Amino acid sequence: MNDWSRPLDGIGVLDLSLSVAGGFCARLFAQLGARVSRVPGEGDVDVPVEARHGPEDLQRRLAGYLHAGKERLAIPVSPESIVGLAPVLSRSQVIIHDRGQAFASQLLASSESQEARIVSVADYGWDGPFGEWKSDGLLLQAHSGIAALIGSPNREPLALPGFAVHYVTGSFAFITAMTMLLGAGDRERHVLVTSIEAASTLHQYTYLAFTRLAEVRKRAQFMLPTALYMACSDGEILLAPVKPNQWSGLALVCDRPDLLEQPVFNTVLGRRLYASVLDRELGPWFANETAAGAFEKLCEVGVPAAVVNTPRQALDDPQFAHRGFQPGAEGLPLPFLLNGTRPAGGRSHD
Amino acid sequence: MTDTNGPRAPLTGLRVLDLTIALAGPYGTRILGDLGAEVIKVDTRVERQYLTQLDLAARLQAMYPNGDPGDEPWNTGGAHGQLNRNKSSIALDLASPDERERFLRLVETADCLVENFTPKVMPSLGLSYEELKVRNPALVYVAMPGFGSSGPRSMFPAFAPTTEAASGFLSMVGYEDGTLVPNPMSLADFVGGLNAIVGLMGALWNTRRTGEGAFVDLSQVEAMASFAGEEFQIVPDWSRDAETGPHGNQLPCALLSGMFPSRGFDEWIAISLYSELEVRAIGDVLGGPTLGGEWAALSRGPAGRDRIRAELSARTAAFGKLELATTLQMAGIGAAPVQTAPDLLADPQLNHLGFFIDVDAPGVGPFPYEGPPWHFDHWSERLTSPAPRVGEDTARILQALDKSIGDNGQSQTGGNN
What we know:
Strand order of the largest sheet of chain A: 3-2-1-4-5-6
Shape of chain A: elongated
Oligomer: heterodimer
Order of helices and strands of chain A: EHEHEHEHEHHEHHEEHHHHEHHE
Radius of gyration of chain B: 25 Å
CATH superfamily of the largest domain in chain A: Crotonobetainyl-coa:carnitine coa-transferase, domain 1
CATH superfamily of the largest domain in chain B: Crotonobetainyl-coa:carnitine coa-transferase, domain 1
Number of domains of chain B: 2
Largest sheet of chain A: 6 strands, parallel
Largest interface: A-B, 160 and 168 residues
CATH architecture of the largest domain in chain B: 3-Layer(aba) Sandwich
CATH architecture of the largest domain in chain A: 3-Layer(aba) Sandwich
Largest sheet of chain B: 6 strands, parallel
Distance between the termini of chain B: 26 Å
Strand content of chain A: 5-15%
Helix content of chain A: 25-40%
């Protein structure tokens, strides 16, 4: 019987990354059952570079999330040389690193790694006017145009929290590595994935740029005409009534069929323009409901909605429990089932 | 991608049926098209209905050239041009028995199928994975509903904002003072699309080895949670009661970071300082060694760091954002301009990397779109075709299908459009 808990079983991966993005790429391989060998950075450091100045608790959580299920190899590797890696290079089909162009060249030239596909990750690439620039999550979001979209129109732009942008880069690195393994096209042995480009795919700027929105400079609240925050008795709920039937569902659940007679509310545009009126009219119903109760009632009639959960509250959601999406020894599992089986993650070799 | 004069695309020969709509699914399948897979976008009329219903919102968002959706918004929208390049399009009414059969014949030829409907849609058309598997046992079928294909919430609809809220992510988006802010950039859609392709790749590898197809059941809410995975990581002092609120622009790992005004209306620069040395360096750049020394001392306490913020804001406002970011980077300080659309299109590094793709789509005109974030050593082609008009490739694809079936000595059931 095919083992869908470890679909990449048999693939050997060498994780030489020092950053979150590379570590996340290797994590995806480990969670899908590949044998991932990780060589930590100089000083035998487990914590990715982005978190080395951070609180100890965050360092432990991040290192734990990225590296669980990987085999840890205590091989001294200098930033400049791959000497010492020969034994592990020869058993690796994929090598992931973020140590620069010269390091990549050595990997490509090494006789031991001729069968390996090499994935290089770099924030700004290897050359060009900003090729040497320092970066982190805040700076990437600023430079790539994400931060300009987010925040209150009367305050400074706002970056998204955590390491999501790095995980995006790591996911692209994984996809390109698998592409080289699966590809029927001309055999590619090496790919460079850049974080600045990965982050720059995460918005709708370029198609907005050719329209009049290029002139709008005050964040992008206008892009969310559909989302409404409503205050319930024990927390907030977010609604996104986009389609006509979703609007009617919302009005009927709130026992306000009379609002359907008001043409001004019949369009997304109208609901956005009169959001404060809508808030006043529907507010009393939400105030008497718990967030969870309102969520159930709205979703039952097809209105997209969600309780504004904190991460740990989210774990209590019955949907997560039903699908087995709970943190285990290796952190959260992958967000999909394969033929009904949740990928089981790597073996712990530490 | 079949050009014999140059390297072939890495995913040459992979055939993908794309039944996705909106943003998450098309973003995912675009990755496959950009990598050289043959992505056939199956227009089922659902997307056209969806766009019609969204018309006012779309108009509001000016998603069309000159703000005019025209008579065929599904062919001229910016989102269509952005998300559906390197794909072909076939129009089929899957509720019609004849066209459903044509679709099933297409399924027989495909390696993968991706859809992002709620879980009731495909079974209601008689096109569930179980039914498709009969026609193609090696098919990798990716479903990516908001809450997953099983469980008590599986039939609930979802959009990016609600997906982010349900996952816990949205509760961390806001300013340092605790003010929560809706996230308008649909991150959950991009994250959902990426994870769909991660799952597809993992499944495809195993299918190639074993011949057994797979049903990839992705939950976009789970995907969004996994992109804040460090928040869910259980460490010895982990408690469900300990919550992470918004950090604003102060990175937990930085000594001092934030967005500071720069010269011009609503112009900003992002700066991250990780050590007392870097604080001293930025003080040196902006005010000389005396200021650098003062700031270095102040940076040892939170009140001092607040004062540095205020003084930084007063000084950064005199400089252009790119000019100052460049100066600070040359001094070893992490800084970046807060870029808007025009900035991005003119960005020297992105242009050096060749990031933007100029697409001249019929009826839309030439515009630059964002490209993929990868650079293979040999294959560098980024655009084989602009987004197709809906149904543009129907006749070609069906004729090829009929020929293939004819060549294999099987019955032909016709095909036109």
